[in-house]
């Protein structure tokens, strides 16, 4: 059973004025969150000048039937390491199931499977990840740096990257245009 204190399987949205330009309007799919820390994959930015075919070529994998989709900037940690966030209809030996919504895989077997047309039906490729040490994300949440929402498959797989942040807030009933970087006291 999922522990409600933790955000695995949810989307983490950066609040205006988060204070770190790397995370302005960030949308992060939370994959691991427990007492030891957290790991998520950023879905709010695209890596410039590299597509999925270039990534496959770097791994010496023929693209086959794989579409040449953009690669997301998963986060500032290990930006050379690749991750695939994908539907649950494919699972490799080292895939991690995240709640009941998606899985995370960081091995070459999923790249080969996608190129051969036997991979997951839905997926997003990313380089790097966002990571937090024990208690760090909780502290940032208390400081109004982040907003968590359950999100949806549509936000993960179908939403345009430029509109994902505002669409994710909208799906939670929040008009992102009304958010401000400052906050007051009552």
From TrEMBL:
<protein>
    <recommendedName>
        <fullName>UPF0301 protein RQX22_01305</fullName>
    </recommendedName>
</protein>
<dbReference type="Pfam" id="PF02622">
    <property type="entry name" value="DUF179"/>
</dbReference>
<dbReference type="InterPro" id="IPR003774">
    <property type="entry name" value="AlgH-like"/>
</dbReference>
<comment type="similarity">
    <text>Belongs to the UPF0301 (AlgH) family.</text>
</comment>
